[in-house]
Amino acid sequence: MHTPTRLDDSGRGRWRVVTQTSTHFLDLDRRAVARVEGAGVPITDGGWSVSALRCDREFVELVKLVRCQVGVEMQLLLRIHADRVTARLTTEVVVINPA
User: Fold this and answer.
1) Residue 40 lies in a domain
2) How confident is the model over 13-51, as pLDDT tens digits?
3) What is the predicted pLDDT for the residue at 16?
4) What's the whole-number mean pLDDT along residues 66-90?
5) Which of the listed residues 29, 50, 75, 96 has the most CB atoms within 10 Å of its CB?
6) Residue 20 near residue 40, CB atoms below 8 Å
7) 3-state secondary structure of 51
8) So what's the pLDDT on residue 52?
9) How many whole angstroms separate alpha carbon 96 and alpha carbon 84?
10) What gap in Å lies between CA 54 and CA 37, rounded to an integer?
11) What is the rounded distance in angstroms from the CA atom of residue 13 to the CA atom of residue 89?
12) Residue 35, in any domain of the structure
């Protein structure tokens, strides 16, 4: 199967996006995303710390996938609370694989 270097908001399918510090599971068909903290690419220089975020390991509504491209930070708009949208910026995307 094809391994893309970028995903677009209008795309389809389920994807595993690995960043420098975490893994994100994107379901573009259901418009949902879940983050597994600390499950990214191992970093040997000690340059990154991983913070726990609200709703880690839970699927939340994906309002918009602003940017998802290997080599740059992923930008997402999420609806974690019913009354507002939260912007999330990740560390650099390392690889995108089908989930």
Assistant:
1) yes
2) 999 999 988 899 999 999 999 998 775 555 555 555 666
3) 97
4) 94
5) 96
6) yes
7) coil
8) 64
9) 28
10) 11
11) 21
12) yes
